[in-house]
Amino acid sequence: MPKTKKEKWIAKENARLLKIHHDYIDKHRKNEDIIINNLWQIGLLHSPVRTLTNQYCFFKDHDFDDDQTEIISACVGECKDPYKPESTIYHEIKFGMEIIRKEQERLSNEVYELRQELKERGDLGDSYKLYLNESDEKVLSKKYDELFKEEGKE
């Protein structure tokens, strides 16, 4: 039994809507994997920040004797304050903490952006409901009639 133009268009439109839904499933799974990985990395970076914070406080608040200062000077090389070489160390530690925090912020911003992308169609169940609503035979028939009503008048 030959299909009418309308039936062919409805079948083609249904296939297109199903492809959109399947593409969204792939995108959703990929984004969720990236989000989980980023959250895991953010958590892993908490420990180094805590360690560096403890070291920073030690070097900033500790009074070193002359022998310790001499050892620190030998380790640091050039320093901003020759009478307080530990200041170079705690400034470098502070810089390291800032770098880690910026990486955590970058990862959290990426998580936010990926979540925003997924708001478009909601979760997988919402996407499927949207597909079912848009691919309903009556909805597609009405859409076809609206798109091609001029053709029918001729």
Summarize the structure.
The protein is mainly alpha-helical and 154 residues long.
Rg, nearest Å = 31 Å
Biggest sheet overview: none
Residue fraction in strands: under 5%
Proportion in helices: over 70%
Specify the number of helices: 6
**Uncertain segments:** none
How many distinct beta strands?
0
Count of the separate structural domains: 1
> Cα distance, first to last residue?
25 Å
Mean pLDDT over all positions: 84
Instruction: Characterize the overall form.
Output: rod-shaped
Helix/strand order, N-terminal first:
HHHHHH
**Which class do the helix and strand fractions yield?**
mainly alpha
What kind of assembly state do the chains in view correspond to? single chain
Sum up the structure in keywords.
154 residues, mainly alpha, 6 helices
Describe the structure.
With 154 residues, the chain is mostly helical. It has one domain. Helix content is 84%, strand content 0%. The chain is built from six helices and no strands. The longest helix has 57 residues, at 5-61. The mean pLDDT is 84.
Topology, element by element:
Blueprint: H1 5-61, H2 66-76, H3 86-119, H4 124-134, H5 137-147, H6 149-153
